[in-house]
TrEMBL record:
UniProt keyword Phosphoprotein present: no
Protein name, entry field: MotA/TolQ/ExbB proton channel family protein
Membrane-topology descriptor: Multi-pass membrane protein
Annotated signal peptide: none
Keywords: Cell membrane, Membrane, Protein transport, Transmembrane, Transmembrane helix, Transport
Entries under InterPro entries matching the protein: ExbB/TolQ_transport, MotA_ExbB_proton_chnl
């Protein structure tokens, strides 16, 4: 019995020590969710005016990659284009994974923010401290609502961003294939033009 009581005290101390960090992180997640919604609205307006910024940056890097192909000892064009595509796709997926992480973390921390104050409120109830118990219960339910709200908001943001990224990835692959076909056809066109000019000279 003494060992059980000691373990219970240790677990209670661990749970109580996590109370403030959990509330702090849930608050930060709520602020991050609002920030994410603002960034989503900003990107939506930017896409309506100037198109996708991701595709524009890819086109700039694509022009640099095509320019490097004119140098000696350059890597094969298909290898360079595939590396460029994977680099840009990975960069965007990392940003999307940050939002997906909040989708999982928000409800989990909200649940922790519920259970920890409930344990504190039960301890206060055992001591007859009703106001402290009521305050802990209010905090518990508030943390639950906030955590679930963060999960729902970031889930909706992730859905919209996934649709945008699918369209961006398709556009980037189209641009890469188009650039590759033009680059590979360019020598053939040069040869045909030279041959046509030579026949006219003869």
């Amino acid at each position: 019995m003494a060992l059980t009581h000691a373990l219970e005290q240790i677990l209670y101390m661990i749970s109580s020590s996590l109370y403030l960090p959990v509330l702090l992180i849930v608050t930060l997640l709520a602020a991050y969710s609002v920030y994410t919604c603002g960034r989503l609205a900003q990107e939506w307006l930017e896409r309506r005016k100037a198109g996708s910024r991701t595709v524009r940056l890819f086109n700039l890097d694509l022009a640099v990659t095509l320019g490097r192909q004119q140098r000696a000892n350059a890597a094969p064009l298909d290898v360079e284009l595939e590396l460029l595509l994977q680099t840009h796709e990975h960069r965007q997926l990392v940003k999307l994974d940050q939002i997906r992480f909040v989708i999982k973390l928000g409800p989990a921390l909200g649940l922790m923010g519920t259970l920890i104050p409930m344990g504190i409120s039960l301890a206060a109830l055992a001591q007859g401290n009703i106001p402290s118990m009521a305050s802990s219960m209010v905090t518990a339910f508030t943390a639950t609502v906030t955590g679930l709200g963060c999960g729902v908001i970031t889930y909706l943001v992730a859905l919209v961003r996934e649709q945008w990224l699918r369209a961006d990835f398709a556009a980037m692959r189209h641009q890469a294939e188009l650039a590759a076909s033009r680059t590979l056809d360019a020598p053939d066109l040069t040869i045909e033009e030279d041959g046509h000019a030579l026949s006219e000279t003869l």
